[in-house]
Write a structure and sequence with these properties.
Mean pLDDT: 92
Strand content: 5-15%
CATH topology: Glycerol-3-phosphate (1)-acyltransferase
Distance between the termini: 44 Å
CATH class: Alpha Beta
Number of strands: 7
Length: 254
């Protein structure tokens, strides 16, 4: 029943909010704090989270309510990671795989709302996308990234891409390592069945990037991975493979 309700909500609310954003862009509505580009994605996500019967519990939410933009670096095991974060975060833009931006209405609306498409298999294109993300940050929006690159099948952390940490250095804003737990039980990868449940979002201690350079990207990646792995272990008893942790050598490949 939950699955059907979520599907119907998706079918009805995606065109409704998507066209709202597309029309706003066509008539020249400015992308500013509190604008339709902020609110429509949040309302859309809340509709889907509500249809799924999810109760979201926030931990250390003061770390997301500070007035300055930041980069939220989150684990990723389910589409509901995206939806629960989108439902609760203040002004934000997501970095998402380019295939999603080819979906009719949804893709055009996402671009109109300022979301950033990334071609992960094309390194130059990916870094161009991160430059766009840096521009969004300078315009006052936070950015949400999933450095594992795609959804996993278990909560244990996988290897991180370096791009999000190059973005953090370029933008000069804090990184907020973020743990989302409970979404695997709601809707795991390779499943279309939705179950109600509780999703916990933990905002960990921010990592300052002020004064750092490109050479610090691996250190930032390693520190973020370690904080998230430690939190997974302490909060839920989930251990991540140490071999997946970013290497210490600053010359490691991106």
């Amino acid at each position: 029943m939950r699955t059907i309700l979520v599907f119907l909500t998706l079918v009805i609310m995606t065109p409704f909010f998507g066209l709202m954003v597309i029309v706003a862009a066509l008539v020249g509505v400015k992308d500013a704090e509190g604008s339709i580009y902020d609110n429509a994605p949040r309302w859309w996500a809340r509709c889907l989270v509500g249809a799924a019967g999810i109760r979201v519990r926030l931990h250390n939410e003061e770390r997301m309510r500070a007035g300055t933009p930041r980069i939220y670096v989150s684990n990723h095991v389910s589409w509901f990671d995206v939806l629960t974060l989108a439902a609760v975060l203040p002004r934000y833009k997501f970095v998402g795989k380019a295939e999603l931006f080819r979906i009719p209405i949804f893709g055009r609306a996402a671009r109109a709302a300022g979301m950033i498409a990334i071609e992960r298999e094309n390194r130059k294109s990916a870094f161009d996308s991160y430059r766009v993300a840096a521009e969004r940050i300078r315009a006052g929006a936070s950015v949400v990234v999933f450095p594992e690159g795609t959804r996993g099948r278990v909560y244990a952390l996988r290897q991180f891409k370096k791009g999000p940490f190059v973005l953090a250095v370029a933008a000069g804003v804090p990184i907020v390592p973020t743990i989302v737990h409970g979404t695997l039980e709601v809707m795991p990868r390779d499943s279309f069945r939705v179950r109600s449940g509780v999703v916990d979002i933990h905002f960990l201690e921010p990592i300052d990037t002020d004064g750092l350079t490109y050479e610090d990207r691996n250190r930032l990646s390693r520190e973020s991975w370690q904080r998230m792995a430690d939190a997974m272990h302490e909060l839920y008893g989930i251990d991540s493979d140490p071999n997946a942790a970013p290497q210490r050598e600053s010359a490691a490949a991106d």
